[in-house]
Each structure stands twice: as structure tokens, then as C-alpha cells.
């Protein structure tokens, strides 16, 4: 029976009638003809070097098996015919093709006769074997036919052992004949190596299924197991993952179940036992996820018999050694993938990876796997396409590779035996394109931030904090308590020290990047906005004959957008764009005055018209005033001029903004392709213009973008997927709205407003509530029912938005949208902080790629990839708030300031910045960034020579200044205050922050000079009396500040355990 496997461009086999009727299969004629030609051309062209100089070759397919196996014979069946024909012998010669098979298979193959004769002028001979026949007579007939044709060399697949009685008999017949036998494995491997478009589509679908299984099932499953500290075995994870791949709909993949399969049973390894070979298997040991542990997961799936593979390593609370090793492996893997393109040799791929390891970590060279992967397609490992150091095969467009690199037999110091041995593995499926390559398993992230997890018990952290011993003098100078922990058992560095080291490394990298960018002159040069129309373009009348005859009084010509003013007995027209202001005023004599002021060059704060600057010799009218006894007419004229001027300015402003817009492609509506994804009853920001009642609208996802429209025909906005830079989904938690927000690459028009940010939202509850009537009890049933309705409404709205987001994410996951790299991002509220980005305080929240504030307008969206550095300003003792200055890589862009951030958020912000690899500095004062950036851009070389951004390093500058002041006398520990030049100065030189122990010590030592038994209150009282006797002078400003700082220092000496606990499990 034919196995139901569909390959390449072939359609899926259609089943026959139910009730035990035999299946009916269709062989694609065009594909068969095309591939028969390719087979014979390749055989005749490369007969000597790849096909063993054979004059004929035979392919024998074994009986079906439930085991996963990859055979060249089965691959040829699927590649040529679309299905696997078990227990079938096919012999190809220059003049004939022989099939030895059962009657049922012969009837299915009958279509090949005519097609083969027309395509390659070869006769097809069918040898039908009866059910109980051993086939010896038919085999003799086939062998005799090629022996009589003087075909002395017969090619066969020597590496495949015969299975079943038919193939064993055939092998004995071949060996006993007079024919010379040669292996044709290399010829078939080269034939399969370059894939057609349909084959590549199958590979990409298999890759999408594999990466989705890793992202949608494996990663969440591992996170849940580790977070809940469950005990599961590797084999049980293998079974669950295999079921997820076999049922694509459970992982949001819309592929038919009958077309998918696994390449091999999923591999899960942990606990020190690692095997990086593809033949490895998942054992029955429990998943090990203790500190410094490593988990390796490898998945492979097939679509229409075409394979794809992905492998990821997950680090649990990794130490510095493991983290560095993974980052080196990631760089090596990216280097190997980066060189894949047509024309290079296979060994160049491995050499690129090896070069990275030798440069970054030469001690790990011996641990690197000896191959960078293999070709992949109908077979999981295609022979002849090994990416090792010896293979000099030239790569071609259409080849597909499983690029797999790993470090094996690695060791690390750990108190737990299962964490001492570890390995690392990364694998992706990569297609070689016409000019470069495409990573088709990119959906599954391998970035360090996405595979490294921190798993620490909160109580353990508190115990470790209690063991930290820090010198009291150092504690007095600490501005804020750090969340860092110190592990004394294995002598690991504290989190604060690791953060400092990481920031130092980031500073070095940032200075290098900035130096390269400034040296290359790649700083952005503005937005390229075109200038608006000049007054020369605004012409009211082309000649004097066009001026209509009017009475000698001020009149407004709405049609020609001009005002007619009587001057010396003539009506002189002025275009409305030349008018700056117009006003009217009445006096006590019932006279009314109108005053018109025009735009004149040289006027302060007036906009410069290029024509006025060009025509400096012209005479300009600055203003005119008229008196009238008709106040009603004057009022009407003023109103008409103001209205006309406002309309013209608005129109020209909109026209100028539209002229600067980037031309975009048209929205392709879904039509009959698929039903658009729809979300109804949404409000939009910015709103459409107009004085009418605002209407809600519907947001639809079409073929290449979104469309928002209301019931009004002119209220419509199209947002193309290619123009979306960031997409956000923020459900209502403590806010009154649930929203979708899009931050765009290029501006679009919403009505007559030009914007890069567009938002769609729904109010989850009434923003305005009625405040009337008497007080209602907290146990009022109506009140409880109303609150429940509000909760249900909020949950329903959030769920509707979530479903819309999930469906759009699935749409964006399709291969044609992969280049946009789109996915809805959700703000991380637990990392948020309050600040003032514009004029009002707002709650600012980080996401995985941005820093956003999406509730208050104007919106704040800052891409982390565009940030050069962050400077935390006004950070110091006694400050309740601090500021954040964000410097962008484009130095022509203004520095973004977020003011008045509470000091309690400082440590969390520093930890977030460090986690996202953003270099930050601290300063006690606000910086004049406009002058600083001008200095950098004017003389970039001097900026580079002086250390780049290190002039902001507060710790380095403090240490330098302290060293210069105290280098002569050295450090001498003493509790005695230093002598000063005068008594007044001596009091000011005391430490601003003192501990209780210091105060007690100073009391004891000064006891010989002061009266014994006096308390601080008595001494303070005596000092106050002495001040009054001297004249009642008030305390100086410096003394008040000193006492304030002293009191602040005492209040800061709180218990160390008051610091907030870290989450139990975080990424």
C-alpha cells in the first residue's frame, strides 16, 4: 500500500470511498515530467564523478515501518512520484524504466508510461508480481534486459541494507549476476541538495511549526515547571512536545495534522548528562533546574516529509563562566549563519565559527563541535553537505542547512555535582537564497536575555543579605540600598559588583560604537522635511483687471482669499497670508477703529518669508488703521478676516505636512482571501477634526495593514504593517481604558493632523460618575452588583482585545511578514515609575523594546535601540526626586528629559537599564545637553580622545578628586574632628552624615573639655542662649542645611531588611 506522504509541489492524496475501499492517489504530471528530466540530466551530466560511471541504476524501496528512518530510496519515491511505494523496485537505464511491484501499485504507476516517453523518450516496462510469487522470474527478465544492452555497470544504494524477502532476493540476484555494482548515494544526495520553490515552501512550513512548538509550548512549559518547582522527567516532556507538534492547532499553527510529523523524538537533557549528537534521546531522569544548571532542548518536525530543526539552550541562574561561554557560542553561530550564501565552500561556514571562538575564548576551542551542521530536506542529514572543516563543496541557492553548533564536555565550579558538567547547543534551519540566506526558525529567540533565567528563593536571599558585612564608613556614603546579594558559600560577586562590571564593559563598547559612528559621519541629518509654500505661491489676482470694482470701503473677497483696502482713492488687494493680526476698538465718540498689521521682514518673532528676504529693496506696508462710524460693518470685517486667515493657515499647514509625508503602498483589502480580523466600538486618538458628535469605529486587519473607519465616509485611517515600528497592547488594570497603540516609522494623516502615534481604545468604565444623593453603604446590594458589572465589563473588553492581539500576532507570524519583525508588546507594570516627560506627571512603563507612556497625551514612545546613554541627574543625598536624561544616537535629536522621578525608583531603574544593556551615568547636577552635544559634534575627535562619555562617570571623578586632595597626607582613621582655621569653620567641617556610634564616641572624648553629664539638648540650649546674647542673629543658611543633612543621615540608618524582595522567578 502506498504510504500517504506528499512531497514538493505534489497535492495531497485524495481518499476513495469509505467502507474499506482502496485509496486513490494522484501523481502530479507536471512535477513528474520536470523531475524526470532533472534526474536523467543529472545522471548523464555527472555520471563519472557522482554516479559511479553506471550505465543503469536501481532503487529498491523496503516494506513500510513504524520506525522513524531516512532512506535515499524513500526520498527518491517522494521526490519523483509524490508518495512512497514500499516493496517496489525501480531500474533506470538510458532506454527503459522498469518497475517491479504489485498489481495495485502498477495501476497507480500506469500514468508514468506516457509521461516518460514524451518527456525523456524512455519506455516504461511494468513487471507485475503476483501475491504469492517470489519474483525471481521477473528479476531475471530485468537483469537480462540490461545485460543484453551491454550495460556492464549497475548502480545501487549500497548503504541501505535489504529489508524484506523481495529486497533480499533482489540483492542476491544482483550480486550473482555478471554486472559490476557501484554506489550511487552521492549522485542522489547531490540531486536532492538544491530544492525547488515548492520544496522550500514545505521546509519553511516545517520550520514555522518547529519554532512555534519551541516558543508556544516548550518555553512556557519549562517556565511553569521551574516556577512551580514541579518534578517532571525528560521522557514525559518529550511525549508532551511530540503531541504538540502532531497537533499544530494547539500551538496556534494552521497546518493539517495529516501533513505533519516529527523528525525525531524531541530531546530534553539536563543534570550533567549531555549528548549533542542527533541520535541522542531523552532519558527518564527528572528535569534538573537548580542554580548554575543547563537545559538543552532540540526539536525537529516534518511537513509533507520535508524536515526542519531547532535547538536551544536554557541557562538557569548561570554564573559568569556559563554566561560568557553561551555568548561566545551565540556569536560563533551567528558568524556561521552570516557567511552562508551561494558560491562559498562548506568548510568556510565552520571556519567562520571557529575563528570567533579562537578570538573570543581560545580555551573553548577544544570543546567546540567538529561540525557546524548538515544539509536538511527529505532527509534529516543529507550526505555530502556536512559543514565541517574538510568539506570543500560549493554551496548553491536553494540548499537548506541545519546550522548546529555546540560546546561539549564543559566544566564549571559548583557545590552541586549535577551543575558541574554542562554543554551548550544552538541550532537553526537556514535557507540559502539567491544572494544571501534566510533563517526560517527565527521565530524562536536564542538571544541571551530570552534564554537566561534567574531562579532564587526569597528567603535564601534574606539569609544571604544578613551575612553581608560592610564597613560602617562605607554605609554612611551609600545613597540608596542596593538589592544585590553576596553568596559567601561559593565566593560569587554581589549583584551590585556584577552590575558595575557590566556597566564598565558597556561603557567601553558604547565609546567604541560612538567613536566609529562619529568617525564615519553616520549621525542622522534631520527629518528631511520640505519647506512650506512661500508667499510668492499665494497670488490673489494675476493682473489688475481681475480686481472686481468695489465701493471704497474695506471688503473681504472670500473666493480669491484677499482683502481689498482703499488707499488714495483706489482698491488695493492684499492676500490674506500677508496679514499678521487684525483688531478693532471703539472710542467714546461712537467711532470705531480697525487696525490691520502685516507681516514685514525684520519684525521680531515674525516668520521669515524667503521672498521677503530676497526682495529686500521692496517697500512693505507695515500697518493701516481706518476710522468708521459703522461699528457693525467693522465687526463683520474683522470677523471675516480672522475666519479667512484661520482657514487659509490651516489649509496651508496641512498641505505642507502632507507634502512631507512618505509615499506608501495602498492597503490590500482581505476580500475573498480571508475574513478580516475585526475589533469594534473603538475610539481613536488623535481624533478626527470637526465639530460634530464623535463616533466610535471598527479596526480591521487586512492583507497588508489595518483600516479604522466610522460610519462617516471621510473618517478612515489606513495603517500598513510595513509602516509599524512598534505595536503595544495595554489592558486596563489601574487605568480607565484598554488600548492598542501603534508607533510608526513615517507620519500619516489622521484627518488634517500629522502623527506618528495612533491609538485605539475603549473605556472600561465611566470616567465621569454622578456625585449625588446620600452616602451608600459598602454592603449595599445595588452597589455590589454595579461593581461586579464593572469588573465583568472590564474583563470582557480585555479578553476581546487579547483575542484580537493573538490573532494578529498569528497573522504577523506568517513568512511574508517576517521581515517586519512585528509583535504586540505589553508594558511591564512592575518595572514602571512616575515621572514628568512633558508637562504633567505620568506613569512611565518599560516594555521589552521601548519606554512608553500611553495614557496621557502627548504620548511617550522611546525605542531602546535608539538610546545612546542615559544620565541620571540630581542623584545624591537628601534628594527626594531625580531626573533622567536620555541621549539618543542621533546627536541632532533633542535630549529627552523625564523629571521628578521619585528616588525610591532609582535602584529599580538602574537594574532595568543594566538588564537591557543600556549604559547609564549618575550626576548631582542637571547638564546643559544642547551645549554638550554641540561640542561633541563640532569636535568629535577631541571627544573620543578624552575618553568619550566617561566625563559623566561620577565615581571616577570623585575618586580622582579625593586622591588629589588626600594623596599628601594619606588616610588616617580617627574619630577626632580635624582642626580648622577658625571655630566657625570647624563646625562646618563636620561630617554631613554621622552614625549614633560616632556621636557617642565624640561625647566621651570631649568630656575633659566640657562639663560632665550634659546632654545634647542642654548643649543645644546653651548654644541658643549664646546666640541670643550676641544679638539674636538667626542661623546661617549653611548651618540650617548642615542640620538638615545631619538629621537626614540619622533617618537613613534603617534596617537593611527593609529592602523589597525580588520576584521568586524572573527573566
TrEMBL record:
Q: Where is this region: Disordered?
A: 459-534, 954-1067
Q: Where does the FACT complex subunit SPT16 middle domain start and stop, copy by copy?
A: 554-708
Q: Which GO terms describe its biological process?
A: DNA repair; DNA replication; transcription elongation by RNA polymerase II
Where is it mostly found? Answer: nucleus
Q: Which residues form the Histone chaperone RTT106/FACT complex subunit SPT16-like middle domain?
A: 833-923
Compositional bias (Acidic residues) at which positions?
Answer: 974-987, 994-1012
UniProt xrefs under InterPro entries? Creatin/AminoP/Spt16_N (IPR029149), Creatinase/aminopeptidase-like (IPR036005), FACT-SPT16_Nlobe (IPR029148), Fact-SPT16_PH (IPR056595), FACT_SPT16_C (IPR048969), FACT_SPT16_M (IPR013953), Pept_M24 (IPR000994), PH-like_dom_sf (IPR011993)
Where does the record say this protein resides? Nucleus; Chromosome
Which ranges carry the FACT complex subunit SPT16 N-terminal lobe domain?
27-188
Enumerate composition-biased segments (Basic and acidic residues). 465-477, 486-515, 1013-1033
Recorded hits in Pfam families, A to Z, give:
FACT-Spt16_Nlob, Peptidase_M24, PH_SPT16, Rttp106-like_middle, SPT16, SPT16_C
Q: Which residues cross the membrane?
A: none
**UniProt feature, compositional bias: Polar residues:** 522-534
Question: Which cellular components does GO assign to this protein?
Answer: FACT complex
One term of GO molecular function: nucleosome binding
Keywords noted in UniProt: Chromosome, Coiled coil, DNA damage, DNA repair, DNA replication, Nucleus, Transcription, Transcription regulation
Q: How does it assemble?
A: Component of the FACT complex, a stable heterodimer of SPT16 and SSRP.
Task: Please give the function described in this protein's UniProt entry.
Answer: Component of the FACT complex, a general chromatin factor that acts to reorganize nucleosomes. The FACT complex is involved in multiple processes that require DNA as a template such as mRNA elongation, DNA replication and DNA repair. During transcription elongation the FACT complex acts as a histone chaperone that both destabilizes and restores nucleosomal structure.
Q: What is this protein called?
A: FACT complex subunit
